[in-house]
Every structure is written in C-alpha cells, then in structure tokens.
Write a structure and sequence with these properties.
Layout (H helix, E strand, L loop, with lengths): L34 E3 L2 E3 L2 H13 L17
Antiparallel strand pairs: 1-2
Bound molecules: zinc ion.
Length: about 70
C-alpha cells in the first residue's frame, strides 16, 4: 500500500498540509490545498512558482490543471 503521507507535504519546502502557513483552498483546510500538481501539493504561491520554474528547468513543465491530490469523495 502506498504511503500517501509524503504527498501531504509541500513539494518544495516540505511544510505539512494543515500548517497555518499552508495555503488552503478558500482558506479552509477541509477544502484541501490551494496549489498542487500531479505530483503533490504546494503550500503557497511562492512555492508554486518555484516548483513551476524547477519543472521547466528539468524539461518537464507542468500541465495544468492536475487532478486534486486529496479527493473529497463527492
Ligand atoms: Zn512550500
């Protein structure tokens, strides 16, 4: 079974989802992260930008939008 815990951290800085500084969608933790990619979540616009630039530098730019990392079971 895959360990999804690591995906609940910011891809760039490792900040755990649920941290007060982790930007949530609409400002509500239960809505999930405000920023994410197909690889995981990003805590802030700054980390989102940093991750975007890193991916471009690696020759595998982001294709948006990605699926939400934490399905809410609608
Ligand atoms: Zn971050």
């Amino acid at each position: 079974m895959l360990n999804r815990v690591s995906q609940r951290r910011c891809l760039e800085c490792g900040r755990p989802f649920g941290d007060p500084d982790f930007v949530s969608y609409s400002g509500r933790v239960e809505n999930g992260p405000a920023y994410w990619t197909g690889e995981g979540a990003l805590c802030s616009p700054a980390c989102s930008t940093a991750h975007f630039k890193k991916r471009e530098g690696e020759g595998r730019p982001l294709t948006m939008p990605a699926d939400e990392p934490f399905p809410k079971g609608r």
